[in-house]
Amino acid sequence: MAETRKFTLSPPSPPGSLPRAPRRVSVPDMHAVYRAENLFDAHLVKDALEAGGIPAFIAGEYLTGGVGQLPAMDYIAVMVPESSLAEAGGIVREVEAGLAEARLAIDEAGDLPDGPCPAPC
Questions:
Q1: pLDDT value at residue 112
Q2: What is d(CA 108, CA 18) in angstroms, rounded to the nearest whole number?
Q3: Which of 15-24, 29-38, 60-69 has the lowest mean pLDDT?
């Protein structure tokens, strides 16, 4: 289920002119295509979408600082315009599959050492 948000912006007045009543400019509806567990996952999805030519926005990115040390659950969403919704779904599924595979590999590796891993020479 996609979440819809509608935003409006007022263009600035030209320099040296008197202020005028704001004129509303409609911004396309944005839909949440991915709910992230953390900012790293959100940025991976956003970067993949932008690499595919889809404009993306991370909603709630700066809210994580407001919750302090508590985990930020359901605050972070990657949003795309309605016109890119269908194309974005495929890219998001690819990134989710890669993340699931990486998490499974980490779980199978078992106990990882704390600190930096030694690099091969």
A1: 62
A2: 66
A3: 15-24
At residue 13, the pLDDT reads: 62
pTM: 0.65
Q: How far apart are CA 79 and CA 48, in angstroms?
A: 13
Packed helices 85-109 and 39-51: angle between N→C axes, nearest 10 degrees: 130
Look up residue 120 and give its DSSP letter.
Answer: P
In Å, how far are 33, 64, 94 from 52, measured between CA atoms? Answer: 15, 27, 12
Residues in a beta bridge with 31: 4, 80
Rounded to 10 degrees, the C-alpha dihedral 6/39/76/99 comes to: 100
**CA 92 distance to own-chain centroid:** 11
Give yes or no for a contact between 54 and 86, defined as CB atoms under 8 angstroms apart.
no
Q: Which sign, positive or negative, has the C-alpha torsion 95, 96, 99, 100?
A: negative
- Rounded distance between C-alpha atoms, residue 21 and residue 95, angstroms: 45
Q: Which two tokens stand for residue 10?
A: 């007022």
